[in-house]
Design brief:
The protein is α/β, with parallel strands linked by helices. Helices cover 39% and strands 23% of the residues.
């Protein structure tokens, strides 16, 4: 199976081409280009295909990071993945962003520790997912830093952009129970590819028409409008 993976959920993004268990090409967009995914993502894919001497028709499957994360980035990434999967009539895998972040950090974590990727959701909240040593997980969460600390027990590694933003609040709520690390800003595209390939091999795919980003909350613009329209007094 030859698969194209797209990652556009956060401050860094990119794409990877994956074939039979290995990453053939992987490129990461810097923060400047990632802020303009609409202009950067498709040309990046075209360049990568050329480097690998491939045409779009040579792809067998598509995978995309679906969030939670940046509203604009997720919208662009999912739209590109849907269009490509539809045009190629190829299977499409929706990879949870926080799961991919956890996979990227797993080698650095003690084997018996709880692992919790934490990203900034703005307005005093974080996106997080808590992975216990027994293999269970919390699912995607939208919580305050204090609320997250209350959901994590035992030894734990908390990492990601949410830790960088709310380190003081997390440290205070954790009371020394957790290790806090800034961690990666976004999952590696190659990790999205590997996880996506696994989903496709297990027939855990999504219809291109049904693919939707995982937002968990409304956009900042929508929330700002609601506050403006709320009656005062």
């Amino acid at each position: 199976m030859r698969l194209l993976a797209l990652e556009s959920s956060g401050r860094l993004g990119g794409a990877a081409i994956y074939e039979n268990g290995r990453v053939l090409v992987e490129r990461v967009l810097g923060p400047e280009k990632a802020r303009a995914y609409e202009a950067a993502l498709v040309p990046l894919v075209e360049t990568m295909l050329a480097e690998a001497n491939l045409a779009p028709r040579d792809l067998d499957a598509v995978a995309v990071s679906v969030g939670p994360g940046s509203y604009t980035g997720l919208r662009v990434g999912c739209a590109a993945a849907k269009s490509l999967a539809w045009a190629l009539r190829a299977p499409l895998a929706a990879v949870p962003t926080l799961l991919a972040l956890a996979e990227d950090a797993r080698d650095a974590a003690p084997p018996d520790a709880t692992l919790a990727p934490v990203t900034d959701a703005c307005q005093g909240r974080v996106y997080a997912r808590v992975f216990a040593p027994d293999g269970t997980d919390s699912g995607d969460l939208l919580v305050t830093p204090e609320g997250l600390a209350g959901r994590v027990t035992g030894r734990a590694l908390l990492f990601g952009s949410g830790v960088a933003r709310y380190r003081e609040a997390l440290a205070s709520a954790a009371n020394g129970r957790f290790t806090l690390a800034d961690g990666p800003a976004s999952p590696r595209p190659g990790t999205i590819a590997r996880l996506g390939a696994g989903l496709i091999e297990r027939n855990e795919t999504v219809n291109a028409h049904d693919l939707a980003p995982v937002y968990l909350r409304r956009s900042e613009a929508e929330e700002k409008l609601e506050r403006q329209e709320r009656p005062h007094g």
